[in-house]
Amino acid sequence: MRTSWNLTLQVVAVLAAAGLRLTAPGWLLFFLVVTIVGLLVPLVPTALSIVVFRRRVLERALAAPFLSCAGFLLLAALTVPDFDDVRAHAPIMAGSGAEVPAVVTGIGMLSLLAWLGSVLWLCVAVVLAHRPSRRPAGPPHPAWTARD
């Protein structure tokens, strides 16, 4: 995957998730806006995509966690219910006056956990990709070779 596509994907995923969360106003939205955690944690994949931008092309070991983060972030934004003083709202059920089914709540919580796991996976993958190799730079020094 090209790094430019990856950066675009991460920015679009964060903006789409923010737009979806704004359709379900409630206490969760208030918590996410007021605390620094709710504003910065969803930006971790975007920041890491900027870090790896110079590579031009991402290998599969880096592309998979980026795709996973974007997909699970959108799924969580669609299905995690937002509670207020009257009833729960879920963006996937926009405009519906019905209660949020337990299945949607379960999918939302599982997708949120999967997204957090994907962010952790992404952090580990970026660290491993930037780790210097342990191979020597060239042939060994002639004085270090075994003598027959």
Descriptive account of the structure:
With 148 residues, the protein is mostly helical. The chain has one domain (3-128). Helices cover 61% and strands 3% of the residues. It has helices at residues 3-22, 27-34, 36-40, 44-51, 60-79, 102-130, and strands spanning 82-83, 88-89. The protein has a two-stranded antiparallel sheet. A hairpin with a 4-residue loop joins β1 and β2 (88-89). α1 runs antiparallel to α4, α1 packs parallel to α5 and α5 (60-79) runs antiparallel to α6 (102-130). The radius of gyration is 21 Å and the shape is elongated. The N and C termini lie far apart (50 Å). The model has no long low-confidence stretch (mean pLDDT 84).
Note the main attributes of this structure.
mainly alpha, 148 residues, elongated, two-stranded antiparallel sheet
Architecture blueprint of SSEs:
Blueprint: H1 3-22, H2 27-34, H3 36-40, H4 44-51, H5 60-79, E1 82-83, E2 88-89, H6 102-130
Helix pairs in contact: 1-4, 1-5, 5-6
